[in-house]
Amino acid sequence: MSSNLRIPKVCLYCNNNFIAQKMNTKYCSLKCAQRNYKQQQREKKLQKANKDYIKQTATKPIIQSNNNTIHKPYLTIKETCQLLNSSDSTIRKAIKDGRIQTIRIGKKHIIRRDDIEKMFLTS
Ligand SMILES: [Zn+2]
Question: How far is the CA of 99 from the centre of ligand 1 (A)?
């Protein structure tokens, strides 16, 4: 290719008109080429970060998948533990102290979700 070529072009980075000496020149100067390159790298990074974020939030359920506890009106002790992220003995102690009201069905304690929510309102 001869270097006598003079092709009027518009810089893809700064939009300035310039005369290119090669067909595939896209930028008016090395500076613009470098800046454009940096910008592209930044955008790539951003896009990757976005993708990773979407991936993470899509695969991560807000509530653990085996835990439908949140929507139930009546809870077992086990479910109450999950809901409050407390240990079994903590819940049983609260029941013994009368801080959590339960209904006994057979040997099972049934706890009203409302009662647990009221605890937070009064405390
Ligand atoms: Zn330029």
Answer: 72
Q: Where are the domains of the chain?
A: 7-59, 69-122
Inter-residue contact 97 to 59 (CB < 8 Å): no
Residues whose CB falls within 8 Å of the CB of residue 103, separated by 6 or more in sequence, listed in order: 109, 110, 111, 112
The string of pLDDT tens digits covering residues 66-121 is 555 567 888 999 988 888 888 999 999 999 998 888 989 888 899 998 888 887 77
Instruction: Specify the DSSP element, H or E, that contains 35.
Output: helix 30-59
Q: What is the pTM of this model?
A: 0.41
Please tell me the distance between residue 33's alpha carbon and the centre of ligand 1 in angstroms.
Answer: 7
Model pLDDT, residue 56: 77
Which residues are placed with Cβ below 5 angstroms of ligand 1, an ion?
Answer: 11, 13-14, 28, 32
Domain 69-122 has CATH 1.10.10: yes
